[in-house]
Specification:
424 residues, four-stranded antiparallel β-sheet, six-stranded antiparallel beta barrel, rod-shaped, alpha+beta, 26% strand
């Protein structure tokens, strides 16, 4: 009996059979509990994603009377391609694309050594002619007049002496004392002395009277000509500094230091025909090609509303400023330019623009905008908007444009709930 009982005892030292450890079941249960908790937490704390759309405020000064819609491009009303008036290499350029400049500001300086040399040469010639003119205008100096007078007196004395000699010689020749040849010599000497006296008397009179008026006038004309050469050389030197003709914005910089610029139009290679282009971006227009079939709907200075593809919520008041005097035969269109009355920094030349031409004459500030709310956003007169990532309930009539409303909101969405907005 004892032997049978001992055979029924459990041998704890015996090796357990290979199989699953005892701790695996509790671990599995724990993982299941954690997973269920995470799933429940995720379901409770998940941020729902909602589809939103932007509310648009449509300004229509004509009270809804839009007669024509057209598209075009924004252009600068007066774009200036600033060229040099003289040829030369660029020594300095002080602006870049997008810089704002004021009228008269230095933009580019060219090398000016050659032009300075021409100016100095012209100034030297002018000063020389001025000195000669002053000499003519002041007349003869007292010393010159005194010398001429003394020369006349000496010549007269010589003439008188020759005359006395001639008288004596003639008497002696008549008495036969002196030969006929001596009389002829005395006569010749007297004639020469008389001629010299007459010449010196005329020279003295000229010295005393001074230069002739015609001579002075001719010299004055030469001085004026030389002054013109100086002014031209100075202008050429001044033109080596290229200044902004208006206040505006640099649209393009066409040269670099060391490049050669010329006064005429050239191609892409070699010398440059202009240095920068600029425009006043406070003076913008929309350039449109209007079909001839629609052209009859438009009149000069007709009001319009301008929008851009880049900023569709921004509206700009304008009016027709220019209508082309002739049509485009190939396109069957007429070019129209609409002036934007108060442009801002959001507008850029060459932007796409849409223009709504209006029948009325009200301004944007006078007209009440029309609010466009996306379909499926209004329920019982209310809308749900997303503000700083959370839901906010608003009255549809209180919207002013620019709000992000939830389209087809879930039924369980609550005011103040955090959401992730997706633009539809």
């Amino acid at each position: 009996m004892d032997a049978e009982l001992r055979s029924l005892q459990i041998d704890r030292a015996a090796k357990r059979p290979a199989g699953r450890p005892r701790w695996i079941v509790p671990v599995i249960l724990l993982c299941l509990l954690l997973g269920a908790g995470s799933f429940v937490y995720a379901r409770l704390s998940a941020v729902p994603e909602v589809e939103t759309a932007r509310v648009r405020a449509i300004h229509n000064p004509g009270g809804g009377a839009t007669v024509l819609n057209a598209t075009g491009y924004i252009v600068a009303a007066h774009k200036i391609e600033l060229a040099a008036k003289v040829v030369g290499k660029v020594a300095w350029i002080g602006v870049d694309k997008g810089d704002h400049v004021r009228q008269g500001q230095e933009l580019v300086r060219l090398e000016d050594d050659e032009y300075r040399a021409h100016l100095l040469e012209a100034e030297g010639q002018l000063n020389n002619l001025k000195a000669h003119l002053a000499e003519l205008e002041h007349g003869s100096r007292p010393e010159e007049i005194a010398k001429a007078k003394a020369d006349v007196a000496q010549a007269r004395a010589t003439e008188e002496d020759a005359h006395l000699t001639l008288v004596r010689t003639r008497a002696l020749a008549a008495d036969g004392v002196m030969a006929r040849q001596a009389l002829d010599d005395a006569q010749a000497k007297y004639d020469a002395a008389a001629a010299n006296t007459a010449s010196l008397e005329k020279a003295y009179e000229l010295v005393r009277l001074g230069p002739r008026r015609e001579e002075i006038d001719a010299m004055r004309a030469q001085v004026r000509q030389a002054q013109g050469s100086v002014d031209y050389a100075q202008t050429q030197l001044d033109n080596t500094i290229i200044r902004a003709p208006i206040s505006g914005t640099i649209l393009e910089r066409n040269v670099e230091k060391g490049e050669f610029v010329t006064t005429g139009f050239v191609g892409d290679k070699g010398a440059k025909g202009y240095v920068v282009s600029l425009a006043d971006l406070n003076d913008l227009q929309v350039e449109l090609d209007i079909s001839q079939n629609d052209f009859a709907r438009l009149t000069p200075r007709q009001p319009a509303i301008v929008t851009t593809d880049a900023f569709p919520d921004r509206k700009y008041q304008g009016y027709i400023e220019e209508i082309a005097p002739e049509a485009n035969r190939q396109k069957a269109t007429v070019q129209v330019k609409v002036k934007i009355e108060r442009p801002d920094d959001y507008l850029r030349p060459e932007m796409n623009a849409s223009v709504a031409f209006l029948a009325g004459g009200k301004t944007i500030s006078q007209a009440k905008p029309r609010i466009e709310i996306p379909a499926g956003a209004v329920h019982d007169g209310d809308v749900l908007v997303v503000v700083d990532g959370r839901v906010a309930r608003r009255k549809a009539q209180a919207l002013i444009g620019g709000e992000d409303v939830i389209v087809h909101p879930p039924a369980d969405l609550k005011d103040g709930q955090k959401v992730h907005a997706r633009q539809g």
